[in-house]
Amino acid sequence: MNPSTPPVAFLAPGHTSKADPSDVRRNNRALIFGLLFPATELSRAQIGRRTGLSRVAVSDVVGSMLDEGLIREGGLAHNPGKGKRGTLLGIDTQRLHIVSIDLSQSRFIQGAVTDLLGTILYRSELALGAEDTIAIDDIEQLAAQLMDHTDHVIGIGVAAPGVIVDGTVRRSTALGWHDVDLRTPLEQRFAVPVSVDNDSTSGMLAERFFGQGGPNLMFVWFRRGIGTSVLIDDVPVVGENHAGGEIGHISIDPEGPPCPCGKRGCLERLISSQVLEARMRDHPESRQTILEQAGVHLANALAMPAGMLDITDICVYGPPDIVNSDFINAAQRYLDQTTASSFHAQTRIRRCEIGSDIAIRGESTAVLRDYLAR
């Protein structure tokens, strides 16, 4: 590993490593933090051996990270020889905090203050009105409540459904938004950096660091709509127009129900959680059939990108009454039929086991990623 190259999971999409000497210190900081995150402890000597950084470089960067509150000193490293035992370093969960806000759920928005590991220290939520719409004033009100309960905040993160570019929600059919700038009003009011990310990307980061996900992962998100995020070699794939993973608006049935995006029969109009819950209420005797058909629809949308990208791990997050064994098993059978070959290992579809705080925990990691990239 090149010691001047930071761990890509801690670079925001669009950032690249540079050879400019002015970036080396920042890159080395991200590299060391990535080795320790979320729960590894290493001595300075061990960090040097794993990164290839010189003893002086490690000491310099570690010293500044200790002062900053990113890492802390703990016990002593195991030393089978007779030499001096080094002090172990780990992530500091005491000094720096993050405010995360989740806009992905219906009927309310929720937020929390977390430490650097996404552990929730304080939470709050704000009920929405009968129309279930969200205004920027609602987000500011919730952020103010959270900011009043903490200090040393390194950033505010917002997880929202839709296509997001540089802090602006360009399009969100779930929220009914077009070109809504979230970053500017929040940064002006609270004077801290603000990160705005697609909710499925936030969920994917939580699965990667706190769940079972590896560096190559396709993450499917069922909440207000349906979204997908893809991780390749620990790099989130956002696409040229930041719309990578918008499978909710792939038309599965061109003669199907109209979608707010302008097409008909989009996946989101066929198998979103709201659509499936309504269908099962109307036809409770057909519950299993409805879920199995939904699983087939999802697998149909995922089969080609999974095969093209050679991804073998698909993780699905959603309500347990929808993303259950009937749904997953039907999707797995269809995917096996369409992607199995002698040169492609089986792609496994599994249910995400992280709880309802997934967007908050993932968005806290997104804020941390942006903080290190700066």
Automatic annotation (TrEMBL):
InterPro entries to which the protein is assigned, alphabetical: ATPase_NBD, ROK, WH-like_DNA-bd_sf, WH_DNA-bd_sf
Transmembrane intervals: none
GO MF term (any one): glucokinase activity
Pfam families recorded: ROK
Coiled-coil regions listed in the entry: none
Region (Disordered): 1-23
Record keyword Lipid metabolism present: no
EC number(s) given by UniProt: 2.7.1.2
Keywords, ordered alphabetically: Transferase
Secretion signal, residue range per the UniProt entry: none
Family: Belongs to the ROK (NagC/XylR) family.
Name of this protein: ROK family protein
Species name: Bifidobacterium pullorum subsp. gallinarum
Organism lineage: Bacteria, Bacillati, Actinomycetota, Actinomycetes, Bifidobacteriales
